[in-house]
Specification:
Elements lengths: L22 H12 L6 E4 L3 E2 L5 E9 L7 E8 L4 E9 L6 H11 L8 E3 L3 E2 L5 E8 L4 E7 L4 E9 L4 H8 L7 E3 L5 E7 L4 H18 L3 E7 L8 H14 L4 H10 L1 H10 L2 H14 L4 H10 L3 H13 L7 E4 L2 E3 L4 H28 L1
Parallel strand pairs: 12-13
Antiparallel strand pairs: 1-3, 2-3, 3-4, 4-5, 5-10, 6-8, 7-8, 8-9, 9-10, 11-13, 12-14, 14-15
Length: 369
């Protein structure tokens, strides 16, 4: 029941990580967060009042030059300017009505008549001013949707927070203490990576980070690793649990273990596609032994789900930061939407120069005194 929203694998330059004030910036924001390249034409018809009173609405058209591939996507901007929604926002005639909510979602996704939906009671969500509501189908599948605070509007899609000061928002959102990391503690440049252990692009980037980047920058930066297992990947969450367990059992073995998981992605994929996840678990325990981690301790951690809260906190952070794909990096709080090693190093070098200038400025002010 999830929406297939503007997903592209190509990566554009970094542009916008903040509050889009008009439709042009809405397009730039979408290019940034969904990785839509410049050669894909995007247009919008302008903002107008949506049926839901708290939102403006626009339709974004994505055109790659092939008529059969042209797509349109409703996008909404909250009138307080704090949230952007990619998906659908429906005004509810009866605020919070479970029957109206289930009928709306059933109709939107054109579900078969024999599939019925049940709505759980609304709960506090990670987004201020929104409740989350879980809908479960008779086939066992469930999805999370959102209600506005007055429960007069249903959000079916992705919500993006639009902070006035993105870097400050990052600092307040992301936990940096007691996290798996490499490099220099209290370095002038902090890099935070959100990655999915089943993601091939993440594996490629990890190889670059370990073999090329860290040997060169280890004494200049701190690289913090966060888990962001995508729901579309069938063993990513289990691997994330195992990797965070490794950190809890033996922090020094975290990075070698992570490397082994990335290196054996194809092997795990082969097994995961033809067997249940218990076989994947055994493979993950085997790799842990190879990395020097006590197999029994790691197995106990996995069985008790002791690392689940860490993975869930990473996921929560990533959602609040608007992450839609992996890997995503933040360099001193600035989102980087490029995965090329050259552009990555240029961004780090720029932050190192900024930090050096800031230190010189501070030293200069002190000397005057």
């Amino acid at each position: 029941m999830t929406l297939n929203l503007l997903l592209y694998s190509a990566i554009p330059p970094n542009r916008v990580y903040g509050r889009p004030a008009d439709t042009e910036n809405v397009i730039l924001y979408l290019r940034e967060h969904y990785g839509i390249p410049d050669d894909i034409k995007m247009t919008t018809g302008g903002l107008h009042d949506a049926d839901a009173a708290e939102f403006y609405e626009t339709i974004v058209t994505i055109d790659d030059g092939k008529p059969q591939d042209k797509k349109t996507q409703p996008v909404y901007l909250s009138k307080n300017g704090r949230f952007l929604v990619v998906g659908h926002v429906f005004a509810l005639a009866q605020p919070g009505s479970a029957q109206e909510i289930t009928q709306t979602v059933h109709g939107l996704f054109k579900l078969p008549a024999n599939i019925r939906l049940t709505a759980a009671a609304p709960q506090k969500s990670i987004y201020p001013g929104f409740y989350s509501i879980q809908l479960t189908a008779t086939n066992g599948r469930s999805e999370e949707y959102y209600l506005t605070a007055d429960q007069r509007a249903l959000v079916v899609g992705e919500i993006f927070a639009l902070p006035d000061h993105p870097e400050e928002y990052f600092r307040l959102t992301v936990a940096l203490a007691d996290q798996p990391s490499a490099g220099l503690v209290h370095a002038p440049v902090t890099i935070v990576e959100y990655a999915d252990l089943q993601c091939p692009y993440c594996a490629q980037m990890h190889k670059f980070l370990e073999r090329d980047f860290l040997p060169k920058y280890r004494n200049k930066v701190q690289l913090i690793f966060k888990e962001f297992p995508l729901a579309s990947h069938n063993w990513a969450f289990t691997a994330a649990l195992a990797n965070e367990c490794a950190y809890q059992v033996d922090a020094r073995a975290f990075l070698p273990y992570r490397t082994l998981i990335f290196r054996h992605q194809d092997d795990i994929d082969t097994v995961a596609s033809s067997a249940n996840l218990s076989t994947v678990r055994e493979m993950l325990l085997d790799y842990a032994q190879q990395a020097g981690i006590d197999r029994t301790e790691l197995a106990a951690c996995l069985s008790s789900q002791a690392s689940q809260s860490r993975v869930e906190e990473n996921l929560k952070e990533g959602k609040l930061l608007g992450i839609t794909r992996t890997p995503t990096f933040f360099i001193n709080g600035k989102m980087q939407a490029t995965l090329t090693p050259e552009t990555f190093e240029k961004a780090v070098d720029a932050e190192l120069r900024n930090a050096a200038r800031a230190r010189l400025g501070t030293t200069g002010r002190r000397s005057v005194r």
